[in-house]
Amino acid sequence: MSEDAARAVALLAVDPLGLGGAVLRGPPGPARDGWLAALRANLPPGTPWRRLPLNAPDGALLGGLDLTATLAAGRPIAQKGVLAEADGGIVLLPMAERIATDVAAKLAAVLDTRQVAVRRDGLSLDLPARLALVALDEGLEGEAVPPPLAERLAFRLDLALPFTLPPAEIQAARARLPAVRVPDAILEALVGGALALGIGSLRAPLFALNAARAAAALAGRDEVLAEDAALAARLVLGHRATRLPEAPAEPETPPPPPDQEQDQAETAAPDPAQLQELILEAARASLPAGLLAGLSGEAREAARRAAAGRAGARRKAEARGRPIGSRPGALRGAARLALVDTLRAAAPWQRLRRQGAPAGPLIRVRREDIRLKRFQARTETTAIFAVDASGSAALNRLAEAKGAVELLLADCYVRRDQVAVIGFRGRAAELLLPPTSSLVRAKRSLAGLPGGGATPLAAGMEAALALAEDQRRRGRTPLMVLLTDGRANIARDGSQGRPGAEADADLVAQQIRAAGLPALLVDTAPRPSAFGKQLAAAMGGRYLPLPVMDGARLSAAVAGVREAG
Amino acid sequence: MDLPLRTPPVAEAAAPARRPPFPFAAIVAQEEMKRALLIAAVDPGVGGVLVFGDRGTGKSTAVRALAALLPPMLVVAGSPYNADPRQPFPPQSGPIEVAEVPVPVVDLPLGATEDRVAGALDIERALAHGEKAFEPGLLARAHRGFLYIDEVNLLEDHLVDLLLDVAASGENVVEREGISIRHPARFVLVGSGNPEEGELRPQLLDRFGLSVEVRTPTDLPTRIEVVKRRDAYDRDPAGFCARWEKPAVAIRKQILAARKRLPRLKVPDAVLEDAAKLCLALGTDGLRGELTLMRAARAEAALTGASRVDRAHLRAIAAPALRHRMRRNPLDEAVATIRVERALTELFGP
After folding, report:
1. Which residues span the domain enclosing B274?
2. Residues A402 and A545 in one domain
3. Is residue B220 assigned to a domain?
4. Is residue A301 within 8 angstroms of chain B, CB to CB?
């Protein structure tokens, strides 16, 4: 909706600090560039405008010791990070959907406290950083800006079409902003609207309030009217909705974005119920198209969880095979020197050390300067659970299988493993939970696993194998736990029939063996089947018949596989 | 970019041109979180508070608000370690000059490096005067106060190790450039975070005396009040804080009165027995559960102005004291609270 994009840019230019910023979803291109140019053009001249480098280390982000300058000056020279440099302005965050969880948390802290707390490299500085963040999200399917960050930005815009910014008195609006009043009825309607849309966080209504205020200021008014609130609801609340509000006598399709400025402006004092209905109507208009029909709290929640799961997975991926910072320590064994960090630790002392002993090497590094590279531990395990949720398995106590998996998850938690869950039923396998160390999410993904349908065993095993190889590439050690009753009846090409399905499963089992993936087959059939045993042998894995679910045995078996792997 | 290098003293760090923190007294609802923080303010020996929960519930707001609420404390004048005049560090002979300072609530931001957390040599002094002087870090500044870590579940592992070590020994040891410093570092650890971002290491979880779960309020009037107050604060922080000064004074008095009452409050054997039974019923690990129950119940009694600790006080603080200590199904955080409630009902009646 290019009209919304234009409105959002104007509102953000009026009150960047009060709105936090925006997530721009969409590929790089004229639409995005145009939006950014419009924002920049409407900010006061000289407003800082910084782009956060990709994979910026903490020093670039938060600030730290300037190594070159420190060595040259012989005394510590500090260097501001991007965030402090952007004080009073805008920070662009390219590829925001890929940033690591800890970077997102640092940015969130800056947005919350409006300052950068530098406690690094011998520096203790609190630098003002009153800024708004524009997160650029390439808008790929299934990826999203980490929730803690998206939560702190008022707008989320899907940019597709270029737009034109209607001329607006932005500077005047900015001056007017502090004087704009919000009637209680409007505030209450915005808070009520957010609640009715299932938005838990209280930041949302606060952003909506600020957006409404900016809209009133833009319109040259000193009081927020219903139309301002409606606009704020559309821009701030709509995309945050997790459920459709129960509305009285809803039409089949809600009317298109209300072109209601005129008639609403004339409504002098609408009663609270009307106001809230107006706000919900406006928010509904900005619910993503297509989602509207199928939107239920559950579906939306699932999407949110999946996004969160990916955030966790990304964080680890970010660290794959790469150092993730440095720490002080002794250089021995397999430890690797972090040269620049070591120099940084030694730099401020150079002049002093030379005074102590004039003859000697040019740069004097002592034992306590030594910094070691920290790597993502290579031994971390990802336990991949492939769970048969077919009709036959459901009959054979899917609920108990879930219970057993939960026990195993608890075990993995104790060992700090990551877990992933793949469910298969009907015709296909589905990644229910990308590798994560959050058990809250793991548990939810299992709880949401429905049962029923045919048994595409080969597809499930294949999905687990693919995920395992992906995990290996990320420097982790995968292991697979396959829970099935072994009644395969869907082949890899989707055709029905037991013989084809079993042959395919056998084939994938051989691939698993060739890949050297440690595996455990837990046979959940009431009577252990010969096929299950044979499949386990083909995988080169262990076989555990479990006619009665026994958490302790299961846990011991997985531990065995882990050690063997 | 040539910035002056400095370590601002505590008072200066607390009061640059930034907004005053949101007043504690103006926080709507979230009673359990507020109570836990007050208990820690009355008896730091309770062992820290962990606040876990939903986004946008004002977790860090509450912790930062605590600073403005705490009655000041006495230190050896000019001591970078907030040294206690009763046990000065480093030891002094002769008369001690005493100063009144605010109780520190020190932020440990993510991205802090070890040298600033533990302290290091003061480079400026070394360069200017050739002196090897220690420049205390965040741990020294937090001594006798609070150390706050937002997103504590994202803190880097080697810093967690350092914290665990210092928390266990009560002192911080730094060796650098040929000097060795050892100074007391006892503080109340306060952490907050959202469990969806990652798990907390079990060893660290165990360090927290109380653990609080926060949820966004779901009733409309409460939510409206939260938004109204927050908005009023955002528009005029100083004016808002001034309007809430009176309730703030009342809470400060409550803390002072409770602290005064605390040493005289005895925990009767019957309550100790209750605590032991409860821990047994819930299968909590170790003695720390019972100890926390006892201390927190006593602080609770002191806060309510009671003259003796009784079962009601124990019940009031049982959930935050125990919910993170049960040999639990780690998958089930919500269930932990229910289990505590159930055990309380089974043992002591509804």
Report:
1. 265-348
2. yes
3. no
4. no
Q: Please report, for the domain that includes residue A127, its CATH number.
A: 3.40.50.300
Across A362-375, average pLDDT? 78
Per-residue tokens: B44:
């730091």
Question: What is the nearest CA distance from B54 to chain A, expressed in angstroms?
Answer: 8
* Residue B157 CB neighbour total at 10 angstroms: 11
Q: Residue A414's pLDDT band (boundaries 50, 70, 90)?
A: low
The single residue of B176, B223, B259, B288 carrying the catalytic annotation is B288
Does the pLDDT of residue A38 top 80, yes or no?
yes
What predicted TM-score, i.e. pTM, was given to this entire model? 0.72
Residue B264: partners with Cβ closer than 8 Å, 6 or more residues away: none
- Domain annotation covers residue A419: yes
What's the confidence (pLDDT) of residue A391? 76
Cβ-contact B233, B22 below 8 angstroms: yes
Asked if A14 and A157 sit in the same domain, the reply is yes
Tell whether ipTM is more than 0.90: no
Query: Does residue B288 carry a catalytic annotation?
Result: yes
Name, in order, each residue with C-beta under 8 angstroms of B349's C-beta and a sequence gap of 6 or more: none
For residues A415 and A538, membership in a common domain is answered with yes
Give domain status of residue A229, yes or no: no
In A324-343, which positions are buried (b, 16+ CB within 10 angstroms) versus exposed (e)? ebbbbeeeeeeeeebeebbb
Q: Are residues A414 and A371 in the same domain?
A: no
Q: Based on the structure, what is the number of domains in chain A?
A: 3
Q: How does DSSP classify residue B102?
A: P
Whether A314 contacts chain B with CB within 8 A = no
Q: Which of A55, A202, A36 is nearest to A135 (CA)?
A: A36
Among A321, A340, A337, smallest CA distance to A329 is for A337
Q: Tell me whether A415 touches chain B (CB under 8 Å).
A: no
A308/B111 CB distance under 8 A: no
Q: Model confidence at A57, in pLDDT bands (50, 70, 90)?
A: confident
Residue B304 lies in a domain: yes
Residues of chain B with pLDDT under 50: 1-16, 330-331
How far A99 CA sits from the closest chain B CA (Å)?
13
Residue type for A33, please? D
Distance from CA of A59 to the nearest CA of B (A): 9
B154 to A102: CB separation less than 8 angstroms, yes or no: yes
CB contact under 8 A, B1 and A80: yes
Q: Residues of B with CB below 8 A from A374's CB? A: 158
- Residue A231 inside a domain? The answer is no
* B238 in a structural domain: no
- What is the least distance, in Å, from the CA of A294 to any CA of chain B? 25
Q: What residue in A sits closest to B174 (Cα-Cα)?
A: A368
Please tell me whether residues A536 and A433 are part of one structural domain.
yes
Determine the structural domain holding residue A87 and report its residue range: 1-61+77-163
Q: Indicate yes or no: CB of A308 within 8 angstroms of CB of B1.
A: no
Q: Which of B5, B230, B333 sits opposite A440 (nearest CB)?
A: B333
Q: How far apart are CA B161 and CA B168, in angstroms?
A: 11
Domain C-terminal end among A133, A163, A193: A163
pLDDT in tens, A195-209: 988 888 999 999 999
- A370 with A500, same domain: the answer is no
Helices (H), A378-529: 391-395, 398-414, 439-447, 457-473, 498-515
Q: Which residue of B has its CA nearest to A193?
A: B220
CATH code assigned at A560: 3.40.50.410
Contact A335/B at CB under 8 A: no
**Of the listed ranges A13-17, A190-194, A489-493, A532-536, the one predicted with least confidence:** A489-493
Residue of B nearest to A376 (CA): B157
B227–A439 C-beta distance less than 8 A: no
Q: Are residues A100 and A131 in the same domain?
A: yes
**A169-182 residues labelled b (16+ CB within 10 A) or e (exposed):** ebeebbebbeebeb
